[in-house]
TrEMBL record:
Family: Belongs to the SusD family.
Signal peptide start-end: 1-31
GO CC field: cell outer membrane
Keyword Oxidoreductase annotated: no
UniProt organism field: Pedobacter caeni
Cellular compartments annotated: Cell outer membrane
Coiled coil: none
Protein name in UniProt: SusD family protein
Length: 467
């Protein structure tokens, strides 16, 4: 991904950087580091190595907290209702029967993400050069990756966003500098959202267009669209999603199969994705996930969302006759999600014409025969499923129901359904395992804060509900 000419780096610079990296690797917690008495990197090339390591992990498909990888997506799918636990052929450590079985694992996501946030803050706070072309790339990418990690933390470790109640809802500790002594308390959810938005805007100000750094301006705008969509700021969600969709056209039906089976080369609709560089570890993760996936069939309820069956290009290419998933699992962010954001945002604004416009734009690229555009007159009845209310708490309308159904089909096996359940009412459901009934209760949609941090940091004494 990023290539540096190490011969051009002087020996002092290399030694300084190695001292810092050794110091980092020996720390036990994400704030237990302060370079007292140590020389820290000085040049943008040296600071870029911190980013290079993480960008390389994304490229190789082993990243866990920024974009994610095949295994992290599989876990989310197993937590959701897309797959049928009752008909599993086997259940092992890789195939949890419900989210409660992975509580300890989810805590570690918190710790790992904050370790990465520490690195971004080292770059942002300590790199003296902020004007050179390379420095701007490094700073812009650091701000963007910090925001991406915070966004992922928010949707996992904070309750779903409720307009009018965000200031009274617990958010995350907001860390914008590298400081060992700092033990910040949890900010409220509104302040957390504002912090993420500010980091993304800072990233935009550096105008990173070098695709070697992955987090280009369009990628940052896609994250802004996702952030505003999650927080029900429909106008801003529309603004950014529209711009990104115009830059990344959706794939048509004849390109769909290429998209879902693409091993390394992203198709034209992919805004950012993992596993673009052939690597032994990334290949192993995907192979392992494939072996785990065949143990659990797709749920009958999900299969029945494909009302057009064979006319829908997705149906024969993601599920086989035994109801086993055949879609390649690759972490990505794609233009079709932007289109779905636009459809739902306009629906919440009661602009049904525009909502239908974007819903039909996607459907027309997936229904290959006998396609009939949706109108307000022919929208199907609200589909019977777990989700009963929309993100604002209102009963599902026919239009919102159709959009959510389309989203479920389009983003299937991309780790989206679990967060859609959380965003739309947190419905409770149960799974049978070894003669017992395990219920995904409302509180389980919000993961527990890392226990070691709660014990050591007085500002984190309030654990999430239910833990």
């Amino acid at each position: 991904m990023l290539v540096f000419n190490f011969k051009m780096m002087n020996k002092i610079g290399i030694c300084c950087l190695m001292c810092l990296l050794v110091l980092f690797s020996s720390c036990k917690r994400y704030l237990d580091v302060k370079p007292k008495g140590n020389v820290i990197p000085e040049t943008p090339e040296q600071y870029a190595i911190l980013l290079h390591t993480q960008l390389d992990m994304i490229d190789k498909g082993v990243d866990e907290t920024v974009i994610g990888n095949a295994n992290t997506l599989m876990q989310l799918e197993f937590f959701s209702d897309n797959l049928d636990v009752a008909l599993s052929s086997t259940i092992n450590a890789g195939t949890p029967y419900y989210v409660g079985a992975k509580v300890n694992t989810t805590q570690m996501e918190y710790a790992v993400a904050f370790e990465k946030i520490r690195d971004y803050n080292v770059i942002i706070g300590n790199m003296a050069d902020k004007e050179s072309a390379l420095a701007k790339k490094v700073l812009g990418t650091a701000y963007a990756m910090r925001a991406a990690n915070y966004y992922n933390l928010m949707i996992r470790f904070c309750p779903p966003y409720e307009t009018g109640n965000a200031e009274a809802t617990l958010g995350l500790p907001l860390i914008d500098e590298f400081n060992m002594e700092a033990k910040p308390a949890r900010a409220n959810l509104k302040a957390t959202v504002d912090f993420i938005a500010k980091s993304l805007r800072e990233a935009l100000s550096y105008n990173v267009e070098d695709k070697d750094y992955l987090f280009t301006t369009k990628v940052v705008k896609a994250y802004l669209a996702k952030l505003y969509f999650w927080t029900q700021d429909w106008d801003n969600a529309i603004k950014y999603a529209d711009e990104v969709l115009n830059a990344y056209p959706m794939v048509s039906a004849d390109r769909y199969v290429a998209m879902i089976n693409s091993k390394l080369t992203p198709t034209e609709n992919i805004i950012i994705r993992s596993y673009t560089t052939d690597s032994e570890d990334g290949t192993f993760i995907i192979a392992s996930v494939k072996s785990d996936m065949v143990t659990r069939p797709v749920s009958k309820e999900f299969v029945e969302t494909f009302t057009e069956k064979g006319n829908d290009i997705r149906y024969p290419n993601v599920i086989n006759k035994k109801r086993i998933n055949t879609k390649t699992i690759t972490a990505n962010l794609k233009s079709e999600e932007m289109c779905l954001i636009l459809a739902e945002a306009y629906a919440h604004k009661n602009d049904n014409a525009q909502a239908l416009n974007y819903l039909n734009r996607l459907r027309s690229k997936r229904i290959t025969k006998d396609y009939i555009a949706y109108t307000e007159a022919n929208l199907p009845n609200v589909y019977p499923q777990l989700i009963k209310v929309d993100a604002t708490g209102k009963p599902l309308s026919k239009l919102i129901s159709a959009i959510l159904c389309e989203r479920r089909k389009e983003l299937y096996m991309e780790g989206d359904r679990w967060f859609e359940l959380k965003r739309n009412g947190r419905p409770e459901f149960w799974a049978p395992y070894e003669g017992r009934k395990y219920t995904t209760q409302k509180f389980l949609y919000t993961y527990p804060i890392y226990k070691k941090d709660v014990n050591l940091n007085p500002g984190l004494i309030i654990q999430n509900e239910g833990y």
